[in-house]
Amino acid sequence: MHLPNYKEAKTTDKREYEEKNYKLKEEYKDKFLGKKCFLKTYGCQMNEHDSEIITGLLTEMGFTFTDDYLEADLILLNTCSIRENAHNKAFGMLGRAKHLKEEKKDLMIGLCGCMAQEEGVITNLLEKYSYLNFVIGTHNIFELPDALVKSVEEGKIQIEVYSRERELVENLPTKRKNKFKAYVTIIYGCDKFCTYCIVPYTRGRQRSRKKEEILEEIKKLKEENYQEVTLLGQNVNAYGKDLYEDYSMAELLADVASLGIPRVRFMTSHPWDFTDAMIDVIAKYDNIMPSIHLPVQSGSDRILKLMGRRYNIESYLTLFHKMKERIKNCAISTDIIVGFPTETEEDFEKTLELVKECKYDNAFTFIYSPRENTPAAKMKDDIPLSEKESRLYRLNEVVNTYFLENNKKLLNKEVEVLVEGKSLKKDEEYFGYTDTNKLVNIKNGNDDIIGKIVKVKITDAKTWSLDGEYVSR
Ligand code: 5AD
Ligand code: SF4
Fold first, then answer.
1. Are 366 and 83 in contact (CB under 8 A)?
2. Tens-place pLDDT, residues 243-260
3. H or E segment at 124?
4. 42, 47, 83, 309: which to mutate for ligand 1, most atoms within 8 A of CB?
């Protein structure tokens, strides 16, 4: 049993761990043949990708997967801590799983992901949800098979959560969801400690994967006909800082692009350490997509300071405009929080002004949610919920107008779209994404274009999607 510990999670010392290659224990192979797993993923792309690894681990043990939790033998929740509503959703599902377990005694239930790293969550689970089989933290997914088998054999809850990063395990059996687009983690953890954010406590300190491992993984993906890779990290700009003297994100991007995979993306970037060298590389390579996620969080310097964001609006705008100038057709998206402690109407209006200047192609907007153990949670959460909701509404009204305005610029133009498949809503339509990551519904496609990058003429522009006609390959 290893329980999470915030004191340890806060520490910033550098640790050395041995590197390992994963291999399933012989006796676990197909041990659960015939059993079905319901795996529910909450949160960000990092979690989605972790779920692809978990799917791989469980498949080797004999599991198949179901979308219906009622028919599952194992219910596994890959959880997120970022805001209170992510918590509520996971606890709601745990409640449903508990009811099911009352009828189905052999039902196995597990929890992993960011919530597993929270002291308060674990205390709650031990008090009220001790029927769980296992809890696995974010630093040791590779131990999930052990925890599962042990919980069944010993008939009691296994909690294996480490508060700091552990060995970097390569060769994990990933089962990717998408056949054409792949996530590739390049850096784990985060060292920024923004005052509102729980991620540095749930995902540990920054640790880069070796460039050789990353490039090898992408080479294989190319051989398997993947058309797109997204390089993942909480802050990808920090790539290499913990590992190399003279190899950073700019060099990695260039090396990945040189492998010739048709589309390269990366996320997420902190505005503070986005270098000119990165901008030059993105501008130079046609297969690095002109689409950058650059979270600003607030338009007020006073609030940015309280958030511990390390930049002010002037320097953010300098970077923003440099990207727009140097990278052809560059689409920039962002994240914004409203209702941070002490945010005044004047601060909020500065956020609206910033949005009007940047005219983002996409924006994810959130109401501030105090997170356990973060510095901001000690500040008085002094803005009434109704005011936070009203600010969110007003902000969304403004950001939405720019999504539509930017989409309209593509009307009657030919764009390149990576076609992912048939539309879920209309059987005769197909869908895919542009280089700038805009969703396009294609009216006159055919099965041959699935998995290919094709030319599409845009015929209609909406706020969150485009309509188009297939032109040619
Ligand atoms: N409350 C609200 N939003 C948050 N985010 C991170 N922490 C919080 C919080 N405590 C948002 C930020 C971040 C995105 C992933 O989630 O905007 O960029
Ligand atoms: Fe949620 Fe952050 Fe964890 Fe992703 S890293 S799952 S957004 S808490």
1. yes
2. 999 999 999 999 999 999
3. helix 119-128
4. 83
- Closest ligand to residue 112's CA: 2
Distance between CA atoms of 317 and 356, rounded to whole angstroms? Answer: 12
Predicted TM-score (pTM) of the model is: 0.95
- Residue with the smallest CA separation from ligand 1 atom 7 is 197
Q: Which amino acid is at 43?
A: G
- Give CA–CA dist 454/59, Å, rounded: 34
Residue 364 has which token pair? 């994810």
For residue 450, the 8-state DSSP code is T
pLDDT along the chain (473 residues), means of 10: 90 85 96 98 96 98 98 98 96 95 95 96 92 95 97 94 90 95 96 96 94 97 97 96 96 98 97 96 98 98 97 98 97 98 98 98 97 95 96 98 97 97 88 98 93 97 96 84
Q: Which residue's CA is minimally distant from atom 4 of ligand 2?
A: 44
Note the pLDDT tens digit of each residue in 33-51: 999 999 999 999 999 999 9
Measured distance CA(270)–CA(311) in Å, rounded: 10
